[in-house]
Task: structure prediction
Amino acid sequence: MSLLEVKRVSRFFGGITAVKDVSFDITKGEILGLIGPNGAGKTTVFNVVNGFYPPSRGEVFFKGEQISGLKPHQICQRGLARTFQVVKPLQRMSVLDNVVASAFLRARDRKEADAIAAEVLNFTSLDEDRNVISKGLPLGKRKRLEIARALATRPDLLLLDESFAGLNPSELDESIQIIRNIKKKGITIMIIEHHMKVIMSISDRIVVLNYGEKIAEGSPLEIGRNPLVVEAYLGEAQSA
Amino acid sequence: MKKHITYIVLGLLALVPLLGLSSYMMHILILVIMWSVIGMAWNLLSGYCGQVSFGHAAFFGVGAYTAGMLYSKLGISGWWGFPASVVVVAVFALGIGYICLRLRGPYFALATLAMGVIFRIVAENLVGVTGGDLGIMLRERTWIDKTWYFYIILLVAAVTYYLVRKIIESKLGYYFVAIREDQDAAESLGINTTKYKTIALILSAVITGFAGVFYTNYMGYIDPKVVFALHDISIITIMVVMVGGVATYWGPVVGAIIMVLLAEIIRSIPKLGTAHHTLFGVLLIVIIIFLPNGIVGDFSKLKRLFGMRSPAP
Ligand SMILES: Nc1ncnc2c1ncn2[C@@H]1O[C@H](COP(=O)(O)OP(=O)(O)OP(=O)(O)O)[C@@H](O)[C@H]1O
Ligand SMILES: [Mg+2]
Result:
């Protein structure tokens, strides 16, 4: 069954068409990769799905219910959490307090929120940094804090926007392991990633955007062989 | 020790009237406690929740006028202003919130500043309702002696302090701070930012209104220029908290002590007149530069400055 259905969504910003007539589904339990060159509209898709921008056209359904038009907090309450490409830690709060703040969405009291936070910090190996003020955290850990915070809201679907960008190789391995473990928990994942090796190895399916349009969809193997995709990326490499 | 400091301070304060202080000293103490209350209230909305208000005089004034008008229009005791102001101030706060809370950062601050001014002008001109510039005078005061006024405002302050602590350590407090730190992140973490900002505003407004109710009963006279004042209420409120320490429990108290004493000292200097605004401005600049977290927030820095170096860890 489809957990998320994006139906013919377009999003315009003034004269710019950031997303154009994009449709795709996410099946419960899978990891869906969303790739495309810079400015292809990937983050905009997240912003529409998570409710930051209403779609200019089209609709989004989550668990069969239309969510386009709802506010982000309402969508989060329904079990859809996200991370930000440009990390947004609650800067002057400790790592622990960041996670406690989001754990309160499901917790009835402080004790329960603390318990959820402790579990999530352990899961994302941020235990040791629990008392660090998040402003002072290195980028790799701030990216992981984004994931931890999203997990603390107990989502069914998790949107990860470039959680691997800027990580060193050991951090990269650690984060990939975390993503795999999230999947094992039964949480469905949609992930935006530029790192081709990562996306090819962890995705069950991949959607490719270029200039706001979906140009391909399929298994990693199919995507790797798709001439349109190769061209979109080669084109970017040549113009760079 | 640290845990009990609140009770110790409260206990000591409760004994103060037994000292037989002069009426003037009691007056200063009462003002300090009243400003602590206003500071703690402002801190909830602006310090913790990050919605910086330049218009708290609106809530102070509405509270003051609720008490005043219960007396002047209905002929009942101004003390009924305490329960009545909860409703009246909350309704006004909802209206202000509806208009201002959709704005962010400096736009919110400017909108609240405008609100404060609008409230003053309306109060000055609705002569039939408020009595206009003539103000409201309570002809008979409840007590001549200051003792009971002292205990009443002390009770308000103690309850406020307790409430703020409870709130900040609970879900509400976490949500307030999350909104201050990043509204978009908060929203995407499932926090209904509009709802919680409104809660912060109403709590802050009602407590500030309490201070206004007290003011009317204590001073026995109010007029729009005094209780809706931009400089002497809204700006001083901000200074109390900034000097003492934004988003700290004791900051508003420390700030209130300093600001009230400073105002009294400055007032005693002859021929200074309204130049005290300039002095306050200079003080604020100095604080922002050297103690951006206020005296309580930067206490360790102050200790170092005065050579009270704590042993290196
Ligand atoms: N709020 C906005 N206002 C105006 N234009 C926007 C806005 N958000 C996105 N855009 C534009 O929409 C297009 C798609 O941007 P988007 O951030 O979705 O790309 P992306 O695929 O995430 O790129 P990247 O890989 O660099 O993160 C860009 O041209 C961008 O400038
Ligand atoms: Mg992006």
About this structure: The mean pLDDT of chain B is 91.
